[in-house]
């Protein structure tokens, strides 16, 4: 009998025909609860939409409202094997260096003179290409200056489709990361790139390690040999700045600098560091030891 009573109890809890209650509540009670939650979540959704709308009114589709950036932009090299900064190949093995030549071909294709003439302007060198807005009226899309592949001369891949790799005189392409609104230079002095033996930073008490690293740097300095830069002096011309952003300047072509190693020591690892030189860009930043410079290893083997 007790079991029958328990069975009838939970059945009545689900639906009580005498009081017409479902799960302990009448239809009107359930209706009021439903209306309350509909109103409550409608209010929350409206508050969220209003908040998003107000926030979006403060944003610009073309320029970030806030830029938490380093004062020194980063640098990268091409070609780059996977995610490493090592260029290692054997002159006698075509397949070991042909991939680097193909990577440079692909990278430089948008810089072909014909492509640049079609989409970009021929600007006045050695001065910033300013394109100011008229108050709230945006001057978009903004124009960009031509960077023709031929400016890289011996490293353009036009006269030498192997970029010197087959001769043991490889070309490395360097570009500076884009920073919206940056003016890299003052008083008409454009930034330029220099490459040398990799420098090592150690603590003041690490005397043994310092001696070892100083020896490594000196050895790498002797191995690097003569360098040649394209454009001349490894300069990033001022006319490619300021950069206004990907949406505002859709055809922007980053300026490049090519470094050609004319007589680097073969069959040995050579650790190289290239850095940006400018009279208004700090040489480094405590938050990013790679700011303003890029390091890589170059090894050219002459035997199989």
UniProtKB/TrEMBL annotation:
Bilayer disposition of the protein: Single-pass type II membrane protein
Main location: membrane
Subcellular location: Cell membrane; Membrane
GO annotation (BP), single: intracellular sodium ion homeostasis
Entry's transmembrane regions: 30-56
Pfam family, one: Na_K-ATPase
GO molecular-function terms, A-Z: ATPase activator activity
InterPro entries in the record: Na/K_ATPase_sub_beta, Na/K_ATPase_sub_beta_sf
Gene Ontology annotations for the cellular component aspect, listed alphabetically: sodium:potassium-exchanging ATPase complex
Keywords, in A-Z order: Cell membrane, Disulfide bond, Glycoprotein, Ion transport, Membrane, Potassium, Potassium transport, Signal-anchor, Sodium, Sodium transport, Sodium/potassium transport, Transmembrane, Transmembrane helix, Transport
Chain's role: This is the non-catalytic component of the active enzyme, which catalyzes the hydrolysis of ATP coupled with the exchange of Na(+) and K(+) ions across the plasma membrane.
Family indicated by similarity: Belongs to the X(+)/potassium ATPases subunit beta family.
Protein name, UniProt field: Sodium/potassium-transporting ATPase subunit beta
Organism: Takifugu flavidus
